[in-house]
Specification:
about 40% strand; alpha+beta; 1 helix; about 80 residues; SH3 type barrels
């Protein structure tokens, strides 16, 4: 099963090609390609799958999604 996970954009490297940014997933920071969401801004939440931001989502929706994922019986969720 594959999941796309919400993350918060911390930094955007507008000079990078493709457009890249640092995204926080519960404190874990990852480099993410933002090329598919060129209107994204620092502080926006994006839904990310395999290192690519697929869409921008509002904070309430992101928080609800993270809450539901946390409630799932997945390896690493204690």
């Amino acid at each position: 099963m594959c999941l796309a996970i919400p993350g918060k954009i911390l930094e955007i490297d507008s000079g990078a090609s493709p457009l890249m940014g640092k995204v926080s997933f519960g404190g874990v920071k990852k480099d993410v390609c933002l090329e598919l969401v060129p209107d994204a801004k620092i502080g926006n939440y994006v839904i990310v799958h395999v290192g690519f931001a697929l869409s921008i989502m509002d904070e309430a929706e992101a928080q609800e999604t993270l809450k539901l994922i946390d409630q799932m019986d997945l390896p690493g969720n204690e």
